[in-house]
Amino acid sequence: MKEVLLSFDIEEFDMPLEYGRSLSFKDQIKVSAEGTKIILDILHEHKIKATFFSTVMFAANAEELIRRIGNEGHELASHGYFHSAFQNSHLAESKTELEKLSGGIVKGFRRSRMMPVDIQEIQRAGYVYDSSLNPVYLPGRYNNFFKPRTLFKEESVVRVPASATPIVRFPLFWLSFHNLPLGLYKAACLLTMNYDSYLNIYFHPWEFTDLTDPGYGLPKFITKNSGDKMTRSFSNLIQWMKKKDYTFNTLHEFVASKMSGQN
Question: Is 188 in contact with 165 (CB distance < 8 Å)?
């Protein structure tokens, strides 16, 4: 069986702040909420499941969407308390708050911007799995080329790295999807799926909104193919994957099935 693990980091849209622009907290939530609705509509149309890594700040200000995520059979996992600030205490605090808001159990964690996090702290906070590792080398961002590329266990936590192609480790993350021709991105997915039998690819809700607003001050490599173009390309990708008979699963269900096979 070949499985696709779609995930979405739902968070405050603070990207403009990284480029010296100002955007109110209300508008940060509004943009991400708009994109999350679009994503949920696409998933509903195609009858597939996904995982949503949410910050507490987003979840507390978009409770209706958090309820919809649970009601439609998707997984809610932790993306920390805030998107632009992190300390180890946020691991347990975000898990507790997200469980209160959703009424479910939060099993997974992914740190914002896929930054490093102490695996022992993740374990102490009670998570089953972590998906904070992008196993590639990108200057100024990631230096993980020699870390495991596929699922592995560290301490009692299962690590599920983001997907990258075998050998050269080209990242299949959101920026690649925006900037590669769709046919080339599909070819990279096909190569990786044939090696690994699964794909772990992630996106953000704000990608499904129009990022070309001059007020955001975002560079072309981020704004390219956003908004309606993103919606069409993403729907096209899902249709292509379904024709390949790939199965769509949440990260927790995938981890549970892999670990049960080892017991």
Answer: yes
Identity of residue 89: S
Name the burial class of residue 139, with classes exposed (0-12), middle (13-18) and buried (19+) by CB atoms within 10 angstroms of its CB.
Answer: exposed
Q: What is the mean pLDDT of each run of 10 residues along the chain (263 residues)?
A: 97 96 97 98 98 98 98 98 94 98 97 95 98 94 94 96 97 97 98 98 98 96 97 98 98 95 55
Task: Report the predicted TM-score, pTM, of the whole model to 2 decimal places.
Answer: 0.97
User: What are the contacts of 115-123 at 24+ separation with CB within 8 A?
Assistant: 115/86, 117/86, 117/91, 118/88, 119/154, 119/155, 119/157, 119/159, 120/155, 121/88, 121/91, 122/91, 122/157, 123/155, 123/156, 123/157
What is the Cα 63 distance to its own chain's centre?
19
Which DSSP letter does residue 242 get? H
What confidence score (pLDDT) does residue 185 get?
A: 98
Q: Rounded to an integer, what distance in angstroms lies between the CA atom of residue 123 and that of residue 257?
A: 20
Report how far apart the first and last C-alpha atoms of the chain are (Å, whole number): 19
CA 17 – CA 206 distance, rounded (Å)? 14
Helix (H) or strand (E) holding 55: none
